[in-house]
Amino acid sequence: MRPDHHLPSALQGLRLPLIAAPLFIISVPELVIAQCKAGIVGSFAALNAREAEGEPPLLDAWLTQITEELDRHNQANPDTPAAPFAINQIVHRSNARLERDLEICVRHKVPIWITSLGARVEVNEAAHSCGGVVLHDVINNTFARKAIEKGADGLVAVAAGAGGHAGQQSPFALVREIRSWFDGPLALSGAIATGEAVLAAQALGADFGYVGSPFIATREANAVQGYKDMIVDSGAEDIVYSSLFTGVWGNYLRGSVAAAGMDPDNLPTADASSMNFSGGSSKPKAWKTIWGSGQGIGAVTSVEPAGVLVDRIAAEYDAARKRMAAAIGG
Residue 137's beta-bridge partner residues? Predict the structure, then answer.
């Protein structure tokens, strides 16, 4: 494991080397605040903040809520301040809100930006204009190089087993190829749901674990109870990989696909031309009950507060480090 002094200041000094992934619809201010107070980077997608036509931008209100609550926490707890938060921007050309949302994020001086579905110079420049750090998510080494060439500061390597729009490459191969030329901030996504997995990500060469699906089964998450319960009751064998629902390959809960009247083992494919974020979502209404998830959910055994989940991962991480130290020393 490398010390974190090589990282941008916004990514240093975390309680755990862990970034909570932005979950579509599910990540809301209450969850982000709980994650940050627990000492990890909390995040949400800008497109999750949706207002009715004619109303003020909800994203503006959400960012105000998060920053004010974290400021209050930090004033009351100077010895254990909250971790910074991150905003995920979908930079696909169909996202008609992107320019407006960039302006709002710059005004609020968002500290960490996570970009997805395309690397764009102007988005990185907007983040840098307010002192923000940009992490771009990628599924292979080619996309990783393009992201850094266009000005991203770091990467999220989305390997096999990750929830949502996931890649197919082994984390061993993906991290090794990226680390052969890139020494900047690197998070690893893909079935990371335990402290042992976070430590393993660091052993591979990543700086952070990137955890998403376990946070679906938290009290603060904006998910229906059936979704949370299915996360608790499912394991890696209950995940199906399909492009049907968004035009991009991703992982979904088998039970939700079956409940929608489809055969999880015989799903048709869709190409990327079906992606459209102009309405704030790549999921047509017909698929609103299709639930995304990564393969690491076998470690999730109950619905609990986000802070309790982070405590569990932290305890596992510390125990794993001690075991490894003893094994190496022995």
Answer: 156
